[in-house]
Specification:
The protein has 11 helices and 10 strands. It is an alpha/beta fold. The chain folds into 2 domains: 8-93, Arc Repressor Mutant, subunit A (Orthogonal Bundle), CATH 1.10.10; 95-298, D-Maltodextrin-Binding Protein, domain 2 (3-Layer(aba) Sandwich), CATH 3.40.190. α1 (8-20) packs across α3, α1 (8-20) packs across α4 (64-93) and α2 (23-30) packs across α3. It has helices at residues 8-20, 23-30, 34-48, 64-93, 102-109, 113-119, 177-180, 202-209, 226-234, 244-252, 280-297, and strands spanning 53-56, 59-62, 96-100, 125-129, 143-148, 156-169, 192-196, 218-223, 240-243, 263-274. Keywords: Amino-acid biosynthesis, Aromatic amino acid biosynthesis, DNA-binding, Repressor, Transcription, Transcription regulation, Tryptophan biosynthesis. Belongs to the LysR transcriptional regulatory family. Pfam families: HTH_1, LysR_substrate. Residues 6-63 form the HTH lysR-type domain.
Length: 298
Amino acid sequence: MSRDLPSLNALRAFEAAAQLESVSQAAEQLNVTHGAVSRQIRTLEEELGVSLFEKVGRGVQLTPAGRRLRDASREAFDGLRSACAEIRQAQAHAPFLLACPGSLLARWFIPRLDRLNSELPGLNLHLSASEGEMDPRKPGVSATLLFAEPPWPADMQVYELAKERIGPVFSPRYAGAAALLDQPADKLFTEALLHTHSREQAWPDWAQACGLDPAELHQGQGFEHLYYLLEAALAGLGVAIAPQQLVADDIAAGRLLAPWGFVGTSNCLTLWTSARASQTQSARLAEWLRVNLQTDAG
């Protein structure tokens, strides 16, 4: 037995006309012309090989075949409407899973999580720490927060939140802290600098932006991820290089020092989501992030 169905548009036009018993009212409900509904019904009748309406005076009424199809189409479309409504409702209450690097999650996001939940109570935000290559297209991930640089992929919606600024930081507990304070930036040439393998170019990029020769820098202890690098700096193990957003709270609390400030890079803190997904929640989160990042920077 064939499982082929007639055109869904034709069935929808017929269902509306059959329920309202009026082609004109069906056209108004569907926001199309009277002629468009009539053509869809004729197409359906030709495909089925039977008349669905018959003229009675100046109006129309359903034939026996039309009544049978009306009942079946009403049940089918009511089921579809109900299923779509349930899916929309479930989606509205589904968790918004945000993936971001562990360092960003721990040092910027979590300290502001109460504020976000208070100001965006309907978001139902869930957070997931990710390291290395983070693909925002992964199943189940609503959006990804990460430092990146353009060009942006065509199949993603990318919200630019704040330009990245990086700079050297160290703890007041670091044994060489006193010797570095009030010194020019090239004093770092005498230091074995802490660095992260996930961002090998950070120190050279900073040096070039400051007019220094990157070849004069000496790499010391390396760490797999930025989070571990910052923990090492906080423990007083040496001078690290870090994005301003991730150390702003530590600097404000006096846990880290940044005597040479921060310089801009080509990277940007961005929120990525699939271009096919609904952007309502992502746009709300992006605006909240943008505002709070500007507040912290200002």
